[in-house]
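Supplementary Methods S3. Complex input for the adenosine-5'-triphosphate-bound model.
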Amino acid sequence: MPDPAIKTAVTPQASVTTSDVPLRADYISVRNFNFFYNGVHQVLFDLNLDIPERQVTAFIGPSGCGKSTLLRNINRMNDLIDGIRHEGDIFIDGHSIFDPDIEVISLRKRIGMVFQKSNPFPKSIYENIVYSLRVAGRHRKSELDEVVERSLHAAALWDEVKDRLHQSAFGLSGGQMQRLCIARAIANQPEIILMDEPCSALDPIATGKIEDLIHELKKQFTIVIVTHNMQQAARVSDRTAFFYLGKLIEYNSTEAIFMNPINSQTEAYVSGRFG
Amino acid sequence: MSSPYVRPPLPERFQVAKRTLAFDRFMQTFIKLGGGGIIVAVLLIFVFIALQVIPLFRGARVDFVKSVPVALDEVVLMGADDWGELPFFVDASGSIFFKDLPGLSQPDGGRGIFQVGNPLPAGFVPSVMRFNENQKQILFGSDDGRFTIVPLQYRTVFPPEGGRRVEVSLESFPVLPIGQPGYPVLDLAYGDSGTNKMAAAVQVVDGSPRLFVQTLFQRRTLLGLGPLTIERSYDLTPLLSAKPVQVLIPFEANAVVALSESGEVSYFFYQNGEFYLRQSFTPFAGLEDTAVASMDYILGDVSLMFTHASGVMRVWSLYRSEATDSRIFGEAKRFPDLPAGADFYSASLRNKGFLAGTGSLASLRYMTTEVVRWEQQLPFTIVQARIAPRYNALFFLDDTSQLHIYDLRDPHPMAGWRTFFGRIRYEGQAHASFEWQSTGGRDDFERKLSLVPLIVGTLKGTLYAMLFAVPIALLGAIYTSQFLRPALRAYIKPAVEIMASLPSVVLGFLAALWLAPIVSNAVPAVLTAIFAICLSAVIVGNVYPALPRSVRRLLPSGYEFAVLVPLLLFAGWAGWQMGNLWEAMFIGDFRLWYPQAFGLSFEQRNAFVVGFAMGFAIIPIIFTLSDDAMTNVPDAFRSGSLALGASRWQTAIRIVIPTASPGIFSALMIGLGRAVGETMIVVMATGNSPVTEWNPFSGMRTLSANIAVELPEAPYLGTLYRTLFLSAMVLFLMTFLVNTLAEILRQRLRERYRAVE
Amino acid sequence: MKRFYQGELENLRTQLLVMAERTVTNISDALAALHGGDIQLAERVIKSDDVIDELEVAIDAEASRYIALRSPVASDVRLLIVIMKVSHDLERMADESTSISKRVIRLMESRHMLEMGMLPELSLQAVDLVREVVECLVGDDSGKAESLPMRDKEIDQMHRRNFQFFTEKVQGSPELASDYIDLIFISKAIERICDHATNIAEEIVYLLRGMDIRHTEKTKRANV
Ligand SMILES: Nc1ncnc2c1ncn2[C@@H]1O[C@H](COP(=O)(O)OP(=O)(O)OP(=O)(O)O)[C@@H](O)[C@H]1O
Ligand SMILES: [Mg+2]
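Predicted complex, serialized as structure tokens:
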């Protein structure tokens, strides 16, 4: 009798693949990465980790440990902040994202991002989703229609909103808005989705829907999720990285982190006995 | 049954301190009162302005005061002194009687009806009498071809027993012949401009009427005026096509207007000692019977009021005709018909009003606005009527020689919707137009109180100011809030805000004395410089992204201005030079070329300059408010957009500006409000010429500037004074309207772009 | 709403059922070997016990992984606990059948004629009980499961009578002592199997009803 449930969780190759190219285990690769705010205030210390392709990697750790900072470095959203500085490098698919020849806009097009607080634009549902296409100069109606339907289906939102695509996105519930933001993030077919506490403002049902969605999405996308919810990390992720005070304390398969952590700090954190 | 439950007293720790409650309540009422007070204050201002304005729209009030008998059998002519206290009556023999009427409502002054000497020499049998109201002269023509003039000298004296009395004396004037001796004079006119003196008469010679004119001459000697002598006589009858019946001479004594039996009016102009028939016209050409029942001058002797036997009333005024390049008459006004041709007529000496009527109907009308101020069927048959010289009473003489005195209260005869907002063909003009000209050089000046040029001026000033300010302020705000390093923004914003506190007098002063001469000397240079700056910005914007990244990396994002500003300055300088160059090459001097090319005037202090100066006044407001609005757009929207791969510009255009649009809109409206109400800059930096045109190189006069300029000169509670209040009200309503519309729109936008909370 | 990891729990349940089937097979095979004297069958039972052990390990690992990662609650957590307990019980049952098989082989090698006492009835009862327990597990039948512990009384009785019977035989014919001692152990093993089956029945009730019927008045009285 086959038992796929066990194997899915431990072997990356079990994910549904759409191409024959083997999936990279170091799709996103952080190397000796240090990060400073205001030039001197170091918040990330010598990070090294590899994030596998088409898997869900969770960042956990106490508040202020730098999870968001690392996440926002992956699509260089930190560029907007005055006085930041980094050392080391981050590679996506083998290319440095800090390479001067890389256009930060095109980098961001490859990486969808979902924020802690859902932030739909003050536009219609439809326009929210096609935003990334419009800014890329794609305006063909048929293409946009198709993208909207596909993204909403992918975000499990189609049935709920298909009759009011042209109404304001603000009429949606919190969970629907967050799924709309996910739909928006995947509309332009990125390769990576970064999620910074996507469920922190949602009820368990909405959270459950989004977790299921994440589980679906990992067939296509490489997902990095920051969460404070241990169960969530345990449920949705394949690998988990535990950060503490800007340092990567332990990085392993989620099972290992939650069942048999090597580091006592990790143990204390995941079991809720921290501090 | 449940037992009565006694609630235990609330423990002290749950109780709210009495002082807290009291203070809370006090502040609530205080704030309510304050808010209410503001609304009440605004309303009161509005009410106050309205109270000042309402009288403008009231009609004339005419009230009967009293009737006094004039103990004369037949009164041929009636007139009054400036105060209306000593009217005179002339009987058929030419005797002048005065009647004492001190204060309209008081019993007569005790002098009763009296005479001051007989002005006419023996043997002078008057065949025609005319009263030259303006000069207070009575003209007499005799039945044997002579005429004389009796000037009335009125003066007030303050007798020792107290009070005040009007005294009168008659001045002497020679009896002069006119026309053919021995024939009776049918109609007589006289004009004296000081240099020109002229008399005209219609005389029946051998059964056919003839028109004679003679110029008079009075030598000025060291000892005073010499005797009045006839200079030259003219017989204008050959120039007429029909029999003359009436003749008029304007007070300038430079023309003669003759009316013929058939209703044709001939306008003779006197020039270089000759009379030329300049124009013949038939006022009632359209009617079956063209005969004119009456023809009279309106104050200023520029307009003629005609009535037809059927009662049709028309006014013809002199205007400069383009076709003939001379001043001729043209039909200017049409009035509602009277039941028949006017039997009596009196022109106001204060304004362009006149009193005319027939039978027992009296009608007070106003020429400029073509309105009937008052009209009434009086309980007697009117034979003579006069408007008191001060336009405060009406005198009617009935067929039983009773003098009826009516009090006239019509402080603002020319006010009305047409005056303020309509097109009016003023005297001397070929077309109806909107004009503002509140004061003129002479008493008979026709006031022009159209608010339209002022409204247009206001809108024009606002338009050019906004044209200049809005792009700069908005683009500046977008740049500082979305692109500039926050650290630098912390310096820029306060600096611009300080600019906002610059007194507008200073700006106006700079604009008038420094900017206006520079700009007017180099309009093409300025325009080219502006164009060059815009163009180079666009070019840089397109070229920069195409540069290799390695080059672009030299310029950290947020410091683009370091390159852009010198570049734009250079572009501005280059544009300036080029502008001067092409001006010299192609058009010579713009100031001369522009009026020729476009037929529009060019003034040094023009709307263009005001646009600049006022722009500087409103840029800071629009800038800082819209910068705030854009900075306050939730960061989540910006990061959301950027994370989706939008550029900063796309984020600004597609997300930040729409979301901030209510705030930006408010900023624009506040800027607009400031521009609409701005006074000092306009007063100083324009020529304050109230023109109704959008020409950027002419001046303008705005409502607010007009108030500032004219209010000190406006007589308290006079028409002008109230009209200025009316313009204040228009300004008030304009801003109110704009603000209300803006608020409605803003609320809509806010509803639409409300951030989720 | 069905969560994406719901399948894991079902798989776990399926695995348990597989294990139960195998255990039932082992027990009935072991008893068949006993009564038929089939050494080959007995050997097969011994061999297939390894598979059951492996299954237990796998089920344990998967269940604890599920507990650690999926934070189950309510019926899920009962199911997991029951699965773990039941798998343990099954494993013990399979062990008992292994030990029966080993003793069967030894008895066959000694080639004595032995009296079986009530062993055949006991075996029939035991196989029947085990089968019914597994049926309850498969069919989520809490009503039947509740009634099963009653039958344990009867089985204990039979085992006690067997014990007396074989003890007398040991005393009566010392040369056959070791064989009869084997039979006593076999009887004991069958009794143990039935105890485990009873436990499973109780766990099924706990799983389905959320109530613990172990050591209650009802079952105690039944045990008396
Ligand atoms: N813009 C900033 N400027 C300066 N310091 C910052 C900035 N953003 C974050 N920090 C600091 O960097 C550290 C890491 O912040 P970060 O937001 O990455 O934490 P986090 O792990 O995401 O925390 P949380 O779980 O609360 O979101 C914190 O000490 C924080 O104070
Ligand atoms: Mg964070």
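Residues 18-53 of chain B form the longest helix (36 residues). Chains B and C do not touch (no CB pair under 8 Å).
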